[in-house]
Amino acid sequence: MKELEKLIPKRCPGVSAMTVKEIIIAMIEEDNVISLEKCGQINIYWCFKNQVIMKLYEAVCTLRVKIADIKEEIKALETDINHQNKSEKCPMFSSGGIKYQRDTLLQELDTLKKNITSTMKDFTAVEEMMWDQARICGEQTNLGNQIHNLEVITDNIEILLSYLAKRCGIDISAIKDELDIPREFEEYNFKTFELETCEI
């Protein structure tokens, strides 16, 4: 856990070290995304990419079933209400030998409509988290372009610094320190961003 508390904030800037433990415990106990195995006195945390995708897929399937069920309930209630609207709108009525209160059914219909709206929002949020091959390739291309642009910029900075150092007779390290420019620019290897080969 201590290693994760140090590693995750570096890889995920939006996550602080103080919240890493809470997030991991929630992903183990509530979401079942991360698995925990105890090996002697060491706790090993692991998670496979396919496991996360399957979890999201199951959530989407569950939401789809709920949406379909709620739609059927709304459809049945609307049909019943439309049928009753053709007759006198009395506070109490019977259908199929069962007595109902009109106000109660209208409240239930309103609640069901709110539930389906909320469920649709959850479904949309989960669906946006699922990446297909086209989206993966698009992100890879975008990252490649950004890395290329960064390399061009850092090369240009090095050329300008070298020119200033020679022109003014100043050590290039002194110029970097004065302008708060790193002594060495961090290098990025595009292969580290590749998830899998794009074949569309």
TrEMBL record:
Its keywords, alphabetically, are: Coiled coil, Nucleus
Residue ranges annotated for the Mnd1 HTH domain, each copy included: 1-49
- Write down the superkingdom of origin: Eukaryota
Would you indicate the residue range of the signal peptide? Answer: none
Q: Which organism is it from?
A: Nakaseomyces bracarensis
What family is reported? Belongs to the MND1 family.
* Primary role: Required for proper homologous chromosome pairing and efficient cross-over and intragenic recombination during meiosis.
Q: Where in the cell is it found?
A: Nucleus
Coiled coil start-end: 67-122
Q: What is this protein called?
A: Meiotic nuclear division protein 1
User: Which Pfam families does the record associate with it?
Assistant: Mnd1
The protein's predominant localisation is nucleus
